Amino acid sequence: ETGVTQSPTHLIKTRGQQVTLRCSSQSGHNTVSWYQQALGQGPQFIFQYYREEENGRGNFPPRFSGLQFPNYSSELNVNALELDDSALYLCASSFGGRANTGELFFGEGSRLTVL
Amino acid sequence: RKEVEQDPGPFNVPEGATVAFNCTYSNSASQSFFWYRQDCRKEPKLLMSVYSSGNEDGRFTAQLNRASQYISLLIRDSKLSDSATYLCVVLNAGNNRKLIWGLGTSLAVNP
Q: Which pLDDT score, from 0 to 100, does residue A26 have?
């Protein structure tokens, strides 16, 4: 086990609603990255948080936002949900922010279905 | 052209077979390279990093060819438990430092 926990594991929302996903990073890790993985696709980088600040972002609209807390846990918020937001949302824990070597430890993910 | 491209799957092989996956990347300044494994409906897990000199971990061998901008993963003596999707990941350096993920190649090892 990686020690990275995500909640909830599954959830169903309707279009236009908002969702908050949570992630607790592995002990000793100060960096959390969020990924979206649609069925049959590779993970797509949403953003990364290092020491409570966003320090990298992929091609996702502003309605995808996040937070990192002093204990390095993190939240991903998605507003105005769209059908295409249905996916597995993965949280990855690491150390060193943008200096990270690329070795990530993932949680089991939150599977979001938007109806 | 996609930044990271992998062999289209799925690969169906019998137990004991040797199978190889290739992955090409477009950014010549890419810094580090990895293979991740993802089981069905599970999270990705780091399988191995790929070093310039090539590296081996048991039945798995990873190679990097910077001149041709590709990396490879060789699996010898395939086991049923090797059935998974194998994701090629590239770390780009510079101001836009980030990991770029391939779409993955699906492997099914059959009895």
A: 86
Question: CA-based diameter of chain B, in Å?
Answer: 48
Distance CA B101, CA B4 (A): 7
Residue A16 has pLDDT above 80, yes or no: yes
Q: What is the overall mean pLDDT for chain B?
A: 91
Residues 71-110 of A with CB under 8 A from B: 88, 90, 98, 101-109
How much is the average pLDDT of A85-108? Answer: 86
Q: What is the pLDDT of residues B24-59, one digit of tens each?
A: 999 888 888 999 999 988 999 999 999 888 899 999
Burial class from Cβ neighbours inside 10 Å (0-12, 13-18, 19+) for residue A110 reads buried
**Distance from C-alpha of A38 to C-alpha of A21, rounded to nearest angstrom:** 16
Q: CA A75, CA A24: separation in Å to the nearest integer?
A: 9
The identity of residue B101, as a single letter, is: W
| CB-based contact, B89 to chain A, within 8 Å | yes
Handedness of CA B30, B33, B35, B41 (dihedral sign): negative
